[in-house]
Amino acid sequence: MSTKSKVLLVDDDESLLKLLTIRLLANNYEVSTANCASDALSELQQQHFDVLLTDLRMDDIDGMQLAEQVQQLYPTMPVVMMTAHGSIPDAVKATKQGVFAFLTKPIDKDELIDTLAKAVRLHGHSQGQQSNHHGIVTRSATMHHLLEQVRMVGAADVNVLISGASGTGKELLAKAVHENSNVSDGPFVAINCGAVPAELLESQLFGHKKGAFTGATTDHVGLFSQAEGGTLFLDEIGDMPLNLQVKLLRVLQEKTIRPVGHSEEIPVNVRVVSATHKDLPTAISENTFREDLYYRLNVVNLRLPALNERREDISLLAHYFCEQIAARQEQAVKRFSDDAMDLLLRHDWPGNIRQLQNVVEQVVALSPSELISAKQVALALQCEMESSTPIALNEAKKQFEREYLIRVLKMVDGNVAQAAKLAKRNRSDFYKLIKKHDIDAEQFAPSASK
């Protein structure tokens, strides 16, 4: 595939079209031309371009109207405006409407080439068509190849292991596998194995029978049963305790489960997709992960790249998050200044897409105008770096304790006495704990969800 940037050149002056085409070809651009806005829109529907270079004054639809339509259809495509009638009001209006740059005829060759180069750098040179597959927004060739693998493996009835750093979107990719599978009409059920206390995980996965243990006042349907006829996504599978790994391996081999306290095997028809940020071969060598389970789960491996390996997606994702926020809050879509986008593009993003989303949420919330400045982005990135440092041990213990109490209460439908027994604490101590963490046990009662 060509690595040249693609420019769509629009002007009703044939001689200027020819002159600019020669200049752009000489500077290693691929060029398509249109002599009116309607032809330009037709070209945009047929192929992807990296930059739109258009005249302001045209007979059918002027450049500003064309830019508005392009921004609605292709929101991340930079638009460079040319005019022989350059004026401050035109330039101000164009900038407010999101036009990337405003050039005055006669076009200076060096200024044109510099402007196009900057537009491609800030908005990402595309190796393929922009796309949104099941919430995965990308124009990265690596990601398009990965999504092609998802389409191929989706129809095959095999277990899939997704590997990738935290925040890269492993659950979204798992959903894409599900949506491309022959069980796409069935449920998609997800659990983070590292977020559930080890003593509760077995019951969460396989269910339990009433009376199976102290506090089990009702039968509990596990996630395998809830995912019947669909897909069960086991996130952070590398954090699963060894004793449960043995039981999971048996389930995958026998296609049956045995709820805690149950004497009979129950058949299940569930596709398993798992994910991890850990190096499982290393975990196997350290005897913290079973080799036989690894090979059972890892029939097909899909590796998600880190965000800094797909930098061409940064501007696309940033705009996508801005659009989501605007739709949620019913407000105008905010956009980044060129300097602000440059900061986003140069950042390493150790927290990947999740970190980018946090930064966008912050700057959109704090920006007083529709144009987000570089200063606001710099402050948000600084805050993210500070918040990514490890929290104090006492604070971590508090967070874990609160999450543990909530999970126990959920298991017993908010019955505090039964939850206290399950946690092996006396009732009065347990009441003090939930009060300390400002937890309302009644919200977990069955009647609360009706």
TrEMBL record:
Modification type 4-aspartylphosphate: residues: D55
Domain Response regulatory: 6-120
Record-linked InterPro entries: AAA+_ATPase, AAA_lid_NorR, CheY-like_superfamily, Homeodomain-like_sf, P-loop_NTPase, Sig_transdc_resp-reg_receiver, Sigma_54_int, Sigma_54_int_dom_ATP-bd_2
Regions that span the bilayer: none
Domain Sigma-54 factor interaction: 136-365
Transcription recorded as keyword: yes
Name used for this protein in its record: DNA-binding response regulator
Species of provenance: Pseudoalteromonas ruthenica
